[in-house]
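User: Sequence in, structure out. Go.
Assistant: Echoing your sequence, followed by the structure tokens.
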Amino acid sequence: MFSHYMPVLKPKKAEMEGLFETAIHDVDLYPLIELAGGQPRLAERPSRAGGAAKPGRPAQLMSDYLEKAYRSVERAVGGTPVLMDPHLFLHRHPQGLTTLIEHWEQWRTDVAPLRVIPVLRLELPTSVLEPLVDFARTLGAGAGLRLLPKDLAREDLEQAVRRMLESTSFQPGDMDLIIDAQTLVNVDRTALKRQCIQALELLSPLAFRTFTLTASSYAENPPSEIGWVDRLEPPFWEEVRQRVSVDVQFGDYGVDAPTQPVDPEYVQLTTPMPVAAVRYTLKHQWLFLKDAAVTQLDEKGEPKTIRGDFRNVCRRLLGSGYFYGAAYSAGDQYFDDMAHGRFENAGESTRWRQAMYSHHFTVVLNDLTDDEPEATPVEPALPF
């Protein structure tokens, strides 16, 4: 029985707006939001007055990030309780736990309340675990427990989980268990699958509120212009759920790869240039399309790189033979509008990603309810 789909997302505008505009389905969207702590700071640049630019204060950077996260997530989920994992945020802001919980408390009592269900990990020190548990008890919506591949490999996994339950005084029936296989690329998937099955069977007698298996096969280095990448998560999940005695729900990372912790002292030297590209989700693959960047001279005769035109990408998508149609999702309507020139310009990368997420969520939800178009060939020909 499929009760929910759990996308693992950042509280960015593209992901949250894509979530907001996804139509209601019989399978609920139950997102897991990863608080990452914001983008790396840009290197300091001289101010117009000639002095060095001062970086923002850490406390202000945290507050600004959390306020933006609140607005994005609240709009996407409304008053529905949402799982939130603070691990990456606390890695980037080691002293930020008090600030984080203060914001969570504020969100809970705001005019537009957002109810956070904290996600715990076995590795959390007591100094972090206890405040998170105290907050979870205040809300009364339980908590999540997220197990990563390194946890699945532990010989004392069952004992470690039971110790956490005892230390938090949570009943398993008040907790969501998330088995997060993370990346399925360049790993021994057979061994990883076996670990997921063993963990689920080992922990199934504890009768958690829900059991979910999440994973990602999104390519860190996708095809340069046109190409296909297999979606490994659905068959991986299907093979696991058929071999365990509990109902295991499906989760993925949308059209992105798992994020690794960032060095808190890391400073970004330049802002990456967006590339006009689309990652289009099909039943078994992603179709990658890209309009190559070109270099041309500006009005001063200096070389300037142009990122490509997203309208060209959308025209190629519509002509590929794999477009699901404008009526399929809000994202597909956007692709269709772009291809037919219904906008004055080519838009910006956040809006492109929003359309990709809206389409992806719709594909997954329809697939879980067996309301999906026919499967594409394993190695489809490219007719364009």
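User: And one key feature?
Assistant: The two ends are 40 Å apart (CA to CA).
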